[in-house]
Every structure is written in structure tokens, then in C-alpha cells.
Q: What sequence folds into this?
């Protein structure tokens, strides 16, 4: 009866872990894998239970030696050392996959006397989130540059124009927009000398940088 309950509980935990979309592995203190869920088996291209007792660094990174010996951060090693939950963000390729950004969590699992007998490691692919954050940061920088321009050049009453390397207008201040009678978008991209001629302006000094 006890054996049946144990088998039922094992199957229950396996079913739950297989429902997790992120790769999940259970690793022993000697860095050997004793369990991985379906997501981990899929991404690491592992058949059945062939992963059991193989070194985690071999399975995950295709290394011949430990991550520490390769000079890389290892959250499992840190969790075993500190007894605490460890989370890191790391760019790496799983097994033979392309390099992506992962949030890796390593959670110590203790027995009834408090000894760490396993570490549960979860690898979450956050590449898309990081790319989104990079885009947000870039947008924020562009918005800040726009505000700085408006706080400086648009307050200058002289006409200010920025040109691209083809001699076309890519930025100008508000006093010139008002003088021209055109909209900002109508002026952008116009050839500089043509714009001056149409507006009846003469160029005394041109500064490029």
C-alpha cells in the first residue's frame, strides 16, 4: 500500500512538473541530474530517462567540465553553498541551441533533518522581455533627446537646421518652421539649398559636425 502511494505521489509530481512550460531539472549535490520535465527534455533533446545521473553541465551546456571550471556563474552551486534560493540572469545557449537570455532559479530541497539533498533548477527564457526593455530604454532616450532639443534649440530665435550627409534637412527649430509657413513634416527631407531658395534665404555661414 505504501509503495502504491509513493508511486502515485511520484506520478503526481511528474504530471505537475510536465505542465510547467519552463525547463525544470532536479540536480544532486554532485551536479548530476535525476529528473527533468518534458519542457527540459524537449529543448535539451533528451530521450526518455537517458538524462538520469548525467552531469547537469553536460546536459545543459554540452560542457565536459563544470561551469565553475569554465569560469561561469552557476546558480546550483551557489544554492548548495548558501542554502538560499538563487536567481541569476544569464545569456547562454542550452545544449546546442542559439544563445538566448535566461532567468535561472535554483531552489534548495532539504530532507527531514535539514540537509540539502537536491536543487530544483528552472530556466525561463526572457529574451523577448529583455528586447522589449531595451526598446523601451531606447524610446526613453529618444524622448529625452527630443525634450532637450525643444528646451534649447526651439527657444533660440535664430534659425537652426540639422542636415544629414546628403544635405537634406533632418531637424529644424520652431522659429524656422513658423517663418516658412510649412508644417514640420513638409520640411523634413527637403534638400537644404532648394529649401533656402524657395524661402528666399541666403546662407552666410554653414556649420557641420
A:
Amino acid at each position: 500500500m505504501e509503495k502504491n502511494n509513493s508511486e502515485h505521489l511520484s506520478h503526481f509530481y511528474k504530471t505537475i512538473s510536465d505542465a510547467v512550460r519552463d525547463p525544470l531539472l532536479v540536480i544532486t549535490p554532485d551536479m548530476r541530474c535525476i529528473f527533468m520535465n518534458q519542457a527540459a527534455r524537449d529543448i535539451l533533446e533528451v530521450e526518455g530517462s537517458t538524462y538520469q545521473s548525467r552531469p547537469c553541465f553536460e546536459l545543459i551546456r554540452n560542457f565536459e567540465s563544470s561551469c565553475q571550471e569554465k569560469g561561469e556563474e552557476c546558480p546550483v552551486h551557489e544554492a548548495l553553498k548558501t542554502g538560499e534560493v538563487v536567481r541569476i540572469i544569464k545569456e547562454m545557449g542550452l545544449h546546442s541551441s542559439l544563445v538566448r537570455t535566461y532567468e535561472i532559479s535554483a531552489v534548495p530541497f532539504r530532507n527531514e533533518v535539514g540537509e540539502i539533498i537536491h536543487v530544483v533548477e528552472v530556466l525561463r527564457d526572457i529574451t523577448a522581455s529583455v528586447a522589449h526593455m531595451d526598446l523601451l530604454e531606447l524610446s526613453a532616450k529618444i524622448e529625452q533627446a527630443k525634450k532637450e532639443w525643444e528646451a534649447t534649440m526651439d527657444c533660440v530665435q535664430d534659425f537652426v537646421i540639422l542636415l544629414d550627409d546628403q544635405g537634406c534637412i533632418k531637424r529644424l527649430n520652431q522659429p524656422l518652421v513658423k517663418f516658412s509657413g510649412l508644417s514640420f513634416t513638409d520640411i523634413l527631407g527637403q534638400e537644404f539649398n532648394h529649401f533656402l531658395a524657395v524661402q528666399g534665404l541666403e546662407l552666410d555661414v554653414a556649420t557641420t559636425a
